[in-house]
User: Fold this.
Amino acid sequence: MIPTIDIAALFGPAGAARDAADRAVMDAAANTGFLCVTGLPPTAPPGGPARAKLLRVFALADADKRRLYRRKFDPARPNVYRGWFPLQNGAMTYKEGIDMGPDAAYPGRTTDPGDPLTEATPLPQEALLPGWRRAVAEYYLGMERTGRVLMRSIARSLGLAEAFFDPYFDGGISTLRLIRYPVRPPESFAGIGEDQVYVTHQGKRRHLIGGAHVDSGFVTLLAQDGVEGLQARASAGDWTDVPPVENGLAVNFGGLLERWTQGRIKATEHRILGPGRERMSIPFFYEPRVDASIEKLPLPGVESFAPFLYGDHLWAAMMRFVEFRGLEAMRKPRGKFAA
Assistant:
């Protein structure tokens, strides 16, 4: 079962309530790797009204969406990592959406034009979606704060200083992604083997709209629209549903955090079954700076490894996804990379 935890106390001062929330979060992180959280403050609203403001972007005309395309889908566009990805036939995953970086919330933030991971995000004109940019910025900041309190909770539970992880995330490159999964048409299956896109769940043959994977980074905060489909793989190997909790978030931990803590935190594989109706989701990937050096944690019993830069790790990890495949040469490692 996926636990649901009220994390309101994590936003408050030290005390018995916060200690209890820390224990509950750490228990989920160490065992299931997945949890649902409630008790979010008004500055981090994942409910229906907040989702509706963000998801208006899918009502844009196709021509306006094309202006936001990444270079993979329109060679005339300058942006490589941020921006719109359209529906693609012949892939295990069938979705469209937009990836937005920190400049969506911090318009004056300096970007490195030579590094696609820090490039500016193409956004629709204000006149097309009045108030949308403000809604995006407010949501981004709220999720950033939520990611920070969860990482502080993990730090306390590991026996590290509460703010141990903070410097890694100062100037981070967290991604806010808006996704639409339409009902999958027959032509979208062309060129892909049935064994890749169909699974049997509870005795029924179901198709995938999101292939099984582990997130690459630290913490993912997912707002769902009430439509079922998200599943996490249990330790016994079977798949369990992750319920869409209204006014809450599904939280899972990434492969890098599992690796960094040497298994103390669990990164759980997850997938999305086609529900037979349109599905919307809003994941927020809480991520550190591109130049954050991932090194051995000051914990007893952990083994040393060659340090590497987060940006190098992220780029290599993202190239495995269909939206980015083929762009490997667009960014060279900035430091000594440990795959």
